[in-house]
Amino acid sequence: MLTIHNYFLSEQDLYAYKLSKQERILVASVLLINTANYITLSTIAENLYVSRATIINDLDSIKSYIKEFNLEVTSHPNKGLRVDGKESDKRLFLMQVALKKDDNSMISRYISLQAGNRITIQKVLSEQERLYEYYLTDNSFEYLVTYLGIMVNRNGMGEYLEEIEKANNDKYLMALDILRLISQYCHLKTSENEIQFLSEILLKSRYIKKRHKDDMMIKIQLVTRQFIDRVSYDLGINLADDYDFFENLSNHLESILKPEAPLYPQSEIVDELLKDNEEVVEAVNSNLGIIEQYAIRELTSIETGYIAIHICALERKKNKEVAFHVILACHAGIGTSQLLIEKLKKHFNFQIVDIISAHEAPHIESNRADLIISTIPIANSKIDVVTVSPLLNDEDYLRVGNKIDSLRNSRHLPSRIGDLESSPRGLLDKISPILKAMAPEKYDGMFHEIKKVVREYFNKPLESNQEMFSPYLHHLLPSSHIQLDVECLDWQDAITKSAKPLLEAGYIEQRYIQAMIDNINENGPYIVLSPGFALPHEGLDRGSVKVGMNLIRLKNPVPFGADEFDPVEFVCCLSAIDHKTHLKAFFNLVNMLTDEKFKNELREAKTSKEAALAIEKYEYLHI
User: How many Å apart are CA 224 and CA 575, to the nearest integer?
Assistant: First the structure.
């Protein structure tokens, strides 16, 4: 069967459900519009698992439906069918399909948005919202993410917008910056027409002053840490040292701590995994109170089940006795392939040995790899294949995990534990503390030169997107951001004095200080992270200007009303500007606070420089 390069048909087997005529028309229309050249009636029939005669009978209806969008189906005797018309109209058609809200229609089971890298697009869009202070409503945000995903894949197919009439509007610069970043991260070329068209979409979008979830952001991240610690204790395993797990779970908890429950699909794969991991489910249910104290509704069983799934996925990641050799078959270009690799490596101990086209798979010998992960179905492969969507959702991770378990249990695989993959950032992280310890006076100049050599050697940027936006703790707490033996009258005074250097340096506004005090009066001393250590903060719209931290060591500890965690001797003011930038520093700090030796060095430091060196030393020990 000819494989069509489309991004909307799901990977589910169409044998499982018989499409109605209206559903056939919709799926066939998507195939036609999202095929770059020609497609035959037989190919459409094969993809829908119906007869060619059925498609012939549907053809007039398909043409009429497509014509509603100012598009025309044309035919060629020796080639087949294709859709002619403006690229903008084709995208608007695909938008309508992707955003279809008819929950009663079974078509939603067979059409899904397989467009672009959704996570990258969401992050870029969120950053530009904050930068331009244009905060989209949830519907407008979803609409734009969907459009940008379609744009990425259409450009990847070589389909570009027609000439768009230029018109000045106040969203042009925002559109320019959004497309500049997406083009960079998704390895595409953009054009003036794309910028103009996106600016018109942004102009018609709806905006709000701010998003409510920002106020709860840091609180949710603190709650996530408490929840992870409790579940780790109950399961007798350490879940607290994985940054990706912490980030993913905090994002997940943020999505469920909303007035309306998110719609999670029922899944046999999920149900089976939960049955096989009853101890994880029990640990999650036993500690739900930590989360529910901040929820305004009771969590559903499906929601708690998906929390357990995150923990199950982490355990699979930690299972590293076999480093599987994997071949990736991806139909959406090298950019999407690289993004898929990064997602897979966060969850599994893989060594990607090759990237191929799907048609090459039957010719790959069985000794080349243990598994092929493909974004489209593959037949007649000599190697086990698991099919995933380019978006890599929860079910895809579970599907890959189940396949790995099956392979591990069914046959002997050679031990392939080797050296960790080298990266410029990983190498520099190893060099930096040694260089600082041996040549502190010459550190800055020498490290700058070493960076250039490493960059040339690896021939790629030093930092990923995440690292560019996520400084380490020691970056936010240099000696200039640490004051020792500060005299404070009470906890309010301690918060004020911890924030004062940030205020003077322009990191926060005056109102941010009172907002932090009001936050504690309203919500209690949850900011006391561990015995003797507090991290005051507030929401994004309360006066934070730049991401930053300032730490004070109190001359005489003061109580915060935190019971066994009192009195507090260290107060670290945090200024957060978004959901992401501070997260790595926060994660590392919480892990370091479990090490009593770290606190002792902070207590014994005679100068701010000594305290800063202790922070850097222990951060490297805990990452």
Answer: 19
Residues of the chain short of pLDDT 50, as ranges, are 1-16, 101-116, 211-213, 317-321, 332-335, 411, 414-422, 459-469
Residues comprising the chain, all counted: 623
Q: Residue 374 and residue 358: Cα distance in Å, rounded?
A: 7
Q: How many CB atoms lie within 10 A of CB 171?
A: 18
Write the DSSP string, 58-95: HHHHHHHHHHTTT-EEEEETTTEEEEES-HHHHHHHHH
Secondary structure element (H or E) that encloses residue 208, with its range: strand 207-208
DSSP string, 146-205: HHHHHHHHHHHTT-----------TTHHHHHHHHHHHHHHTT----HHHHHHHHHHHHHS
- 482 - beta bridge partners? 551
Rounded Cα distance between 212 and 258, Å, is: 10
The type of residue at 477 is L
CB 41 within 8 A of CB 55: yes
For residues 578 and 444, what is the distance between their CA atoms, to the nearest angstrom? 29
CA 274, CA 278: separation in Å to the nearest integer? 6
Rounded distance between C-alpha atoms, residue 434 and residue 430, angstroms:
7
The two beta strands, 207-208 and 135-136, are antiparallel
What is the pLDDT, as a whole number, of residue 264?
A: 62
Q: How far apart are the C-alpha atoms of 232 and 558, rounded to whole Å?
A: 31
Cβ neighbours around 576 below 10 Å, total: 23
- Strands 371-374 and 385-387: what pairing? parallel
Alpha carbon distance 330, 427 (integer Å): 30
Residue pair 117/336 in contact by the 8 Å Cβ criterion: yes
* Alpha-carbon Rg for the chain in angstroms: 27
Q: For the packed helices 301-318 and 394-410, what is the interaxial angle rounded to 10 degrees?
A: 50
Domains detected in the chain: 14-109 (1.10.10.10), 118-208 (1.10.1790), 223-299 (no CATH), 324-410 (3.40.50.2300), 424-463 (no CATH), 473-621 (3.40.930.10)
Distance of alpha carbon 388 from alpha carbon 338, whole angstroms:
15
Do 507 and 575 contact (CB within 8 A), yes or no?
yes
Q: Give, in degrees to the nearest 5, the angle at Cα 335 between 333 and 339.
A: 120
Please give the Cα distance from 65 to 29 (Å, whole number).
8
Specify burial of residue 243 (Cβ count, 10 A radius: 0-12, 13-18, 19+): middle
Q: How far apart are alpha carbons 30 and 4 in whole angstroms?
A: 11
Lookup: tokens for 132: 């331009």
Q: Which SS3 state, helix, strand or coil, does residue 324 take?
A: strand
| Residue labelled with tokens 């301690």 | 494
CA dist., res. 178 & res. 33, Å (int): 26
